[in-house]
């Protein structure tokens, strides 16, 4: 395992064409399907970052702010923005793309925590996050700020 890894080492983007099996009776993406794609993309980002198998430990609050319609492309993007000793925090964004019009819109964002496992299935140390340029630093800082703001907003709703 390397001592450090960069945010871009973890960057992952995957696409899914929304087909009828993943839609509700309104022709829109099932929330569970979107969460599944987010979990997979986040796990790939975490594994690319640390070079080990990773398991989902938690997922923060999710608001579906815009639907993904039948025939649109779901673009799922993930990157590591923070680490602990054995944990990896990953921001996952989803946007809908209309391939005919070339238009995109944000649909949801959430923050996942994964735990890296060694060959025996025991939590194992992960590299430190290195952001060697301004772009990576800005992505990291923005994700940290957004997560804090999202958690604060959820806590305020509970009060």
TrEMBL record:
InterPro entries assigned: Cytosol_ACT, HOTDOG_ACOT, HotDog_dom_sf, Thioestr_dom
UniProt entry tagged with the keyword Hydrolase: yes
PROSITE patterns: HOTDOG_ACOT (PS51770)
GO molecular function terms attached to this record: long-chain fatty acyl-CoA hydrolase activity
GO terms, biological process: acyl-CoA metabolic process; fatty acid catabolic process
Boundaries of every HotDog ACOT-type domain copy: 8-120
Keywords: Hydrolase
GO cellular component: cytosol
Superkingdom of source: Archaea
Matching CDD domains: BFIT_BACH
This protein's name: Acyl-CoA hydrolase
Species the sequence originates in: Haladaptatus litoreus
Source species taxonomy: Archaea, Methanobacteriati, Methanobacteriota, Stenosarchaea group, Halobacteria
């Amino acid at each position: 395992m390397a001592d450090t890894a960069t945010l871009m080492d973890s960057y992952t983007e995957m696409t899914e064409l929304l087909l009828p099996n993943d839609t509700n009776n309104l022709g829109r993406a099932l929330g569970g399907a979107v969460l599944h794609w987010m979990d997979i993309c986040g796990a790939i980002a975490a594994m690319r970052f640390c070079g080990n198998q990773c398991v989902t430990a938690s997922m923060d609050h999710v608001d579906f702010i815009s639907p993904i319609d039948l025939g649109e492309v779901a673009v799922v993007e993930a990157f590591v923005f923070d680490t602990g000793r054995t944990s990896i925090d990953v921001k996952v964004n989803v946007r809908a793309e209309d391939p005919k019009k070339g238009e995109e819109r944000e649909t949801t964002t959430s923050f996942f925590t994964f735990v890296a496992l060694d060959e025996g299935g025991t939590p194992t140390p992960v590299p430190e996050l290195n952001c060697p340029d301004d772009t990576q630093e800005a992505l990291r800082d923005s994700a940290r700020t957004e997560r804090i703001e999202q958690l604060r907003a959820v806590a305020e709703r509970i009060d």
